[in-house]
Automatic annotation (TrEMBL):
Native organism taxonomy: Bacteria, Bacillati, Bacillota, Bacilli, Bacillales
Residues that span the membrane, as ranges: none
NCBIfam families membership: EF_P_mod_YmfI (NF047420), PRK12826.1-2 (NF009466)
Protein name: SDR family oxidoreductase
PROSITE patterns, sorted: ADH_SHORT
Gene3D superfamilies: NAD(P)-binding Rossmann-like Domain
Organism encoding this protein: Paenibacillus anaericanus
Length: 255
């Protein structure tokens, strides 16, 4: 039995919501939590079939799974998602804010609409989801908010100014909210990966990927499973003294 601030819950009784969980890091996070029997909420926007496939894999591991769609740029849709989860008894003890989009290009070519979309999907969604789901965590005096950021939010990336700014905002938000929620037994951390083998890397040619791997001291890109293991660690009750941290698994690329 795990005891923390008066709340008693077995790991298998906990519920985790992962946004953008139909593929990549989000899908692997869902599978990692499903492997220990947690209740899994798989959020997606348009990738219905992909989300169902992740759900099937999680159920094969014995987890109770619920899939839900919502546009995370909309507070109204997020609150509807929360109401549906409440109805099904799936109140998240853990929220993994993973949904995001990338943008690559010269800042001089970025229009206002592109800026707003990257900010809304990567940063505003973190604000809205945290605000929506943290009251339950505060009430029970236990919770975990884990934001998936990027190494570019720490160091900045050439031709990725908009994306870097959004992820930098996620990092600052993480540090500030961690201080706000710490007295309530809720931790807030960010995982800021380097280059990971996901769909976001598909815009690179094989040669560009080879050159990138040469820049990384460990000589390769990360597997999504390596990122999900860190997310899982931060979610554990035993990790309650870790909060306000931006942890960057990047193979020694950025130190």
């Amino acid at each position: 039995m795990t005891i923390h601030h008066g709340v008693e819950k077995e790991i298998g009784e906990m519920t985790v919501l992962i946004t953008g969980a139909s593929r990549g890091i989000g899908a692997q996070v869902a599978l990692r939590f499903a492997a220990v029997g947690m209740n899994i909420v798989i959020h997606y926007l348009n990738s219905h079939e992909a989300a169902n496939e992740v759900a099937r894999k999680c159920m094969d591991l014995g987890a109770k799974v619920y899939t839900v769609t919502a546009d995370l740029r909309s507070k109204e849709q997020i609150m509807r998602m929360k109401e549906r989860l409440d109805t099904h008894g799936m109140r998240p003890d853990i929220v993994v804010n993973n949904a995001g989009i990338s943008h690559y290009g010269l800042l001089s070519d970025v229009d206002e609409e592109q800026w707003d979309e990257v900010m809304d999907v990567n940063l505003k969604s973190v604000f809205l989801c945290s605000q929506a789901f943290m009251p339950y965590m505060i009430q029970q005096r236990f919770g975990r908010i884990i934001n998936v950021s990027s190494v570019w939010g720490i160091s900045g990336g050439s031709c990725e100014a908009v994306y870097s700014a959004a992820k930098g905002g996620v990092n600052a938000f993480t540090k500030a909210l961690a201080k706000e929620l710490a007295p309530s037994g809720v931790t807030v951390n960010a995982v800021a990966p380097g280059a990971v083998k996901t769909d976001m890397m598909s815009r690179f040619t094989d040669e560009e990927l080879r050159l990138l791997e040469e820049e990384i001291p460990v000589g390769r890109l990360a597997a999504p499973e390596e990122i999900s293991s860190l997310v899982y660690f931060l979610a554990l009750p035993e990790s309650g003294y870790i909060t306000g941290q931006i942890i960057s698994p990047n193979g020694g690329w950025m130190t």
